[in-house]
Amino acid sequence: MKISFNNLFDIDRKLYERCILKYIYEHYDIGKGFSKYLEQDKWVIELHSIDSFDDSFYTKEQQVDLSTGIPHGVTGQYVVKCYIVDDKNDLFTLQNFSAICHELAHMVLKIHYPNRRGVLRHSDFYSKRGDEKNFFSQEVHDRVKEKNLRTCFAYKNRFKKFRFIGVNILDLC
After folding, report:
1. Range of the domain at 26
2. What is the pLDDT of residues 120-173, one digit of tens each?
3. What angle do CA 37, 41, 46 make, to 5 degrees?
4. What is the tally of structural domains in the chain?
5. Is the distance from CB of 121 to CB of 140 less than 8 angstroms?
6. Which residues contact 145 (CB under 8 A, 6 or more apart)?
7. CB–CB of 40/120 below 8 Å?
8. CA angle, corner 126, sides to 92 and 108, nearest 5?
9. pLDDT per residue over 83-118, tens digit each?
10. Entry pTM
11. Which of 43, 26, 18, 60 is nearest to 160 (CA)?
């Protein structure tokens, strides 16, 4: 797995790496998850400045409702792209990690359940309640709507913890 920082100059890269790795690795059983580790090694996590976002991924109708000024991301095949605010301020970092963990949850569930399907319990940006979707998408979006989140932490330095919020999918892994 590779984590890349693109057009980001002001964030604490070490803190971002620690938080990303902490969130991801909490979802693996070390004794039973070796095949998942191998699958994860194929992935690239790209962090980009929010200013470099290209909305061509979305349809014209979706672009109307899209807020490109806040952290967000897209999870594709072996690539997670997150667009974040390039600022060291802890409040911006916290906001950035809300979007990053959302996309990491998609990635983790895609690794664990690549072919599983699910039915949306709540409407989301793309689909209506009752629609069938890939489980790794459906479950993350439903849990966000249900506010099924958890507080995570990583050490900012030897003495200070940084707390951030992630989608709670621990029970699925």
Report:
1. 2-172
2. 999 987 899 999 999 999 999 999 999 999 999 999 988 999 999 999 999 998
3. 130
4. 1
5. no
6. 121, 122, 124
7. no
8. 60
9. 999 999 999 999 999 999 999 999 999 999 999 999
10. 0.92
11. 18
